[in-house]
Amino acid sequence: MTFEEIKNLDEQYVMHSYSRFPVAVDHGKGATLWDIDGKAYIDFTSGIGVASLGHADEGWLKAVTGQAVKLAHISNLFYTAPYAQAAAKLCQRTEMSNAMFANSGAEANEAMIKLARKWSFDKYGKGRGTVITLHNSFHGRTITTLAATGQDKFHDYFFPFTEGFRYADANDMDSVEAVAGHDVCAVMLELVQGEGGVLPLDRDFVQKVADLCAKRDWLLLIDEVQTGVGRTGTLFAFQQYGIQPDVVSFAKGIAGGLPFGGILANEKCKHVFSPGTHGTTFGGNPIAAAAACHVLERMNEDFLASVQKKGHYLRTQVEEMALPCLGATRGLGLMIGIEVKGGRTNRELAALLIDRGLLVLTAGSGLRFLPPLTITQEEMDQGLAIIRETLG
Ligand SMILES: *Cc1c(COP(=O)(O)O)cnc(C)c1O
Q: Which residue has the CA at smallest separation from atom 6 of ligand 1?
């Protein structure tokens, strides 16, 4: 098919819930992609942080195909080795106690919210189901995770939303105290607000929230759907913040390209879900779980150190260009936000870069880079050269 044929078919038969960039991606290798006409692109998106080992990674392919020829799906009514192994690997590296798997970030967060409310119900009874989240957060697109998302623009059209969320300002303990109450069971945070613009929370604020949670017997819920699984240069971002969550959610990068996600609970929360209280048909699918096991095996200390080094390199290189349309960079590891200035929008700059062969993302009012964590020096330099030539 030609690009025009694909585009016409898509326009006619696909719901227009996205305004797509004019590229039909055909295949990839590492952090390089080719479109339907054979034009090459450097990938600074990894499909929004999903293809964590890059495209068509040999080890990942072996793990996925090895499982696919044995068993694709059997449901959670039976044991499978990949599920148990992925859960064990995650817990052993996070000091968490047990796991439950889902298929996406929103679903993982739904599970986390359900767990918090049931934990509180089991201990205190009704009337203590409110979760405090932060302004400018993003927690997903289901009705409940939209309600959890602290941005007004996500609170239109779909009424009635799920009750029981209140919003505080990031890095402002007074505003957290201001929305506290006898009805609260948990605080839910992204440690680096991703969709909101790649805004890392202050370490001091996060530790004070953790202290307040301990004092009030609230659960500390950390949404690591974007920051988790190596993205920030540690397996989970909470490991850089000196805190231990009660529950943490993850998704995007966990299975290197397959739909997968889940939650990890600590000792206090490990028995909240009993048979029949939460479930999913697809969650923990053996192929995705086998992919997750492979992703976790690859993310050893050296791998994670390289993520920090690459993130530092990309940020300093962009800042040294001192381009008129790009401002300060921020983020953690290979989760990088870049301020846009000088009159053009982030969407306009992204469209220019994509046209010249570099896929990038936007977040808030800035640009966002989430390259595959395996991106090579050469691919980073090719991407940086496109930025210099296009925006310089
Ligand atoms: C992407 C994202 C989600 C939603 O994940 P989906 O897989 O799109 O449902 C939730 N929280 C955060 C922090 C995210 O970045």
A: 105
Distance CA 229, CA 251 (A): 8
**Region of 46 on the Ramachandran plot (φ > 0 left; ψ -120 to 50 alpha; else beta):** left
The pTM of the full predicted model, rounded to 2 decimals, is 0.98
Q: Given this model, what pLDDT does residue 128 score? A: 98
For 135-187, what is each residue's pLDDT tens digit? Answer: 999 999 999 999 999 999 999 999 999 999 999 999 999 999 999 999 999 99
User: d(Cα 163, Cα 208) in Å, to the nearest integer?
Assistant: 26
The answer to whether 130 touches 183, Cβ cutoff 8 Å, is yes
Residue 232 in contact with ligand 1 by CB distance below 6 A? no
- pLDDT, position 281: 97
**Confidence (pLDDT) at 337:** 98
C-alpha span between 384 and 42 (Å, rounded) = 10
Cα(139) to ligand 1 centroid in Å equals: 6
Instruction: Tell which one of 48, 113, 226 to mutate to probe ligand 1, the residue whose CB is within 8 A of the most ligand atoms.
Output: 226
Torsion of CA 365, 207, 253, 91, to 10 degrees: -170
- Tell me which DSSP letter residue 342 carries: S
| DSSP state string for 282-341 | STT-HHHHHHHHHHHHH--HHHHHHHHHHHHHHHHHHHHH--TTEEEEEEETTEEEEEE-
Both structure tokens of 307: 């993520």
pLDDT (tens digit per residue) in 109-120? 999 999 999 999
Q: What is the pLDDT of residue 274?
A: 97
Pairing of the two strands 165-168 and 192-193: unpaired
**Cα separation of 130 and 329, whole Å?**
35
Task: Measure Cα distances from 117 to 72, 166, 283, 332 in Å.
Answer: 33, 14, 21, 31
- Angle in degrees, 0-180, between the axes of helices 377-391 and 301-321, rounded to the nearest 10: 20
pLDDT band for position 97 (cuts 50, 70, 90): very high
Cα 15 to Cα 240: distance, rounded to the nearest angstrom: 40
At 355, list the tokens: 């046209």
